[in-house]
Amino acid sequence: MGQAGLLDRLSALDTNTVSDALDFLQLKGATYGIRPLWDCPKIVGRASTVQLGVKEQGAAPTTHLLTPVIDAVSTNDRILVISGGTEGISCWGDIIANASKCKGIRGSVIDGMSRDIDGSRDIDYPVYGRGVTMISARNRLVQIDSGSPIQMRGVTVNQDDFVIADRCGTVFVPAERIEEVLELGERIDRRQALMVQDVRSGKAVSEVMHDTKFEAFHQARPSTDVKEVTQTAFGNPKKATTEDQELSALFAESDTPGISDALDKLGINGQAFNIMPLSNYKKVTVGPAFTVRYVPASDPPGSVGDFIDDVAEGDVIVIDNGGRTDCTVWGDIMTQYAGLRGIAGTVIDGVCRDVNRAINDDYPIFSAGRWMRTGKDRVQVGGVNESIGIGKVRVQSRDIVVADANGVVIVPRHRAREVAEIARRIEQSEEGIRASIAAGSSIAEAREKLGYHLLQRKG
């Protein structure tokens, strides 16, 4: 098959599926920490490798890094893959983005930083990297080599290897194994589509995601003549209790900043550190915690997702994966099933994947990051509905979780009414301050009048 055909097949997949295929084949290719630096589209192409390094003091001026590689590109299938970036120092900017766009380069993947990222965004040039900065590479970094093997976050990438990058991260596929990876990836994709159909039809997720289903990926190619499954009326037999509904309702009109202030005033540690929303949610997610603790996988490995059949309508699933960022514990099938069962949202001290599904379905997920590599055979459920830790906060089963675009707070169940009352007072006072400012008061006058300095003080 020609290169264009291989790229078309790779484009039909996502990084999650390609990562799974690499796992089955015991190949390294999935990287963590290289993410889209603006809301750019997925890119798929062949690697043009570049090695950068620190410029030695007193060395003579050189040609601007990357320009020889850009000038040498003669096909429209190239992705620049750049290694050797230094923390805080840019190795990409808007001028070379414009030059790359003119040459038909599909995008850049940088194990380093970019500056002038708005310039890349404005011309619709995709850039994936570790982060952004304003500090120039001039007289700090030089190009050492190109077209040779490089290291990208622990993965060896050769010239002409295949690259796929999307919202979940970046994956490299050895050119000599691409057809094998594609064939297996397509098989995984088809079988997962059937699993989603099974979930929609009402099958228990414990049956759908049984280990035997995953083992079937190794089996012969399934028939593509798949009968459509009609989605049946679907509900959750486990309903919220009256008390759960009452306690959740206390926070329905609040937000996490107000509740955080109330927790501070009461001396309660409830702000989950570094657990952030997957998207800029406009609504607040509230519900009792259904706690799940993951542990490293045993031999043979145990269950990864059966617990979801026991989660009640309106619950928030809170997963302690020990802050691990090397494998995920949540993907699109879990998102689909949770949405159908009326689960309020998911909080993960770890990473998630298949983020397009969650974002498009508007299913709230709050996590320490996103990555495409599966947790299967790496982690398993160690316990449910027991005390766990999330972002340096202790969470008991049935504590009240409140999450929004600002982050996640945990309210101890036995103090929920007290916290809600303090949060209500704080929010009323802040509303009064805003009204006073709008009427012409200075912010100092408004704060003094309404006792703002006392709002978060303990006691």
From TrEMBL:
Record's keyword terms, sorted: Magnesium, Metal-binding
Alphabetized InterPro entries for the sequence: RraA/RraA-like, RraA/RraA-like_sf
Binding-site residues for Mg(2+), renumbered to this chain: D354
Domain of life, per lineage: Eukaryota
Example GO molecular function: metal ion binding
Keyword Lipoprotein: no
CDD domains, per database record: RraA_family (cd16841)
Cofactor field: Mg(2+)
Residue sites binding substrate per the record: G331, D332, I333, M334, R353
Name of protein: Demethylmenaquinone methyltransferase
Species per Swiss-Prot/TrEMBL record: Penicillium steckii
